[in-house]
Amino acid sequence: MQQTGLERINIGSQIYINFVESDKFKQNYIVVNIAGRLEDGLKAAKTSVLDKVLRRGSRNYPTMAEINKRLGYLYASSVNLWSFKYGEAQILAANAQMLDNKYALDETNILDETIGVLADILMNPLIKDDSFDENYVETEKTNAVNEILSQINDKSWYAYKKCVEHMCRGERFAIDIKGEVEDVAKINGKNLYEYYRYILENCAIEIFCIGRLSNKKDYITDKFRDLFKNIKRAEKTEDYSTDVILKAVNKGEITEEMEVNQGKLVIGFRTGITNKDEDFASLVVFNSLYGSGITSKLFENVREKLSLCYYCNSGIDGVKGIMTVSCGVEVENKQKALDEIFKQLEDVKSGNFTAQEIENAKLGVINGYKKVYDNFGSIAYWYFNRLLQGEIKTPEQVIEEIEKIGRGEIINAANKLTLDTVYFLKGTILNNPESGGE
């Protein structure tokens, strides 16, 4: 497999096309990321509904059935749209995946025609009287509301979400990427179309093209340059950077009761380090050693040795500079689990871990980075993430940094952590496995 890193080309005001050459796949992949500022719930809700409405139909393919029929003809190409949160940015993404032209059984230019479908969906939507189709909008609003309301069904996610809301109250990071039900209610076909026009004119656009594209770069670049040439782009696009608080103010413990069997404990920390800092690699290795893998201290001690919980793991958001520890625990074991989680953290801070634990932690991180090349999405996200960090590095370069991390760097990273919030979703159904409900 040949991997040559990133080639970056400017094609407009804050519009870039990025190429990553790889011969690992028989397909090619293109994703358009439109990056804006996560400002409030209404804006988040509009982004969430917009990605669904755009996928419903375009001017040349006014229904999903017609879109799918066209893509099926193009050797089962695919086009998808979604939105996601990156720190305090919200990203509207649209991708296309298609078989490389050399595998076509006829003269079909699969690349060109699939880009055409993607372009029609993204840039030529189904509009009447400066409004999206109201039937499509209302249907997708209903779907959006159902997604928001269903979040409570995943109790682990719900507990994480509530912990973040409490610890980041007043910060944009606390905004749900889907918005709230009352935000969705304010959306209609006309104001959603106005928002669509706004983001095309005012948000940064990063396009990633991955695959066997070395002899097609000029063609693809011209294609996308032509696609955006009639958009009146703002000279200065939205600032979608993330505000970081390096040191926590301890907000104490919040308990919420719910009729479930198993309690959900989430502990929020400020890491004092972000993915733009030189010691971020140290934080990544610390996280692996402390709680993110099956050889971590939390897994081996809190879960396996002491059997205090069903799961216990840590995760970092390197953009925002926070770490959370999530734990599924019986109510009667909650305090014991909490105490042991803090004890294991103090052990790391004081250097109470072995050389083998360091090697296991680094190996877990390195194996994860090696898997970046396993699929298109992870490759695109890797380089998008690196661009937003401000320094483009390949996974191999970051692996070299990880390999150099030693005991001292891990201890230093651990000691920068400060406790912010403890959230406990307390189950009120005790010792009754028949009553269900996670």
Describe this structure in words.
This protein is of the alpha+beta class. It has 15 helices and 11 strands. The chain has helices at 41-56, 64-73, 110-123, 134-150, 155-167, 181-185, 189-202, 217-228, 280-292, 297-305, 334-349, 355-370, 376-389, 395-403, 407-415, and strands at residues 3-12, 15-22, 27-37, 78-86, 89-99, 204-211, 253-258, 263-270, 311-317, 322-329, 418-427. It has a 6-stranded mixed sheet with strand order 1-2-6-3-5-4, with helices on both faces. It has a 5-stranded mixed sheet with strand order 7-11-8-10-9, sandwiched between helices. A hairpin with a 4-residue loop joins β9 (311-317) and β10. α1 (41-56) packs across α4 (134-150) and α9 (280-292) packs across α12 (355-370). The chain is globular and about 65 Å long.
Task: Spell out the key features of this protein.
single chain, 438 residues, alpha+beta, six-stranded mixed β-sheet, five-stranded mixed β-sheet, 11 strands, globular, disordered C terminus
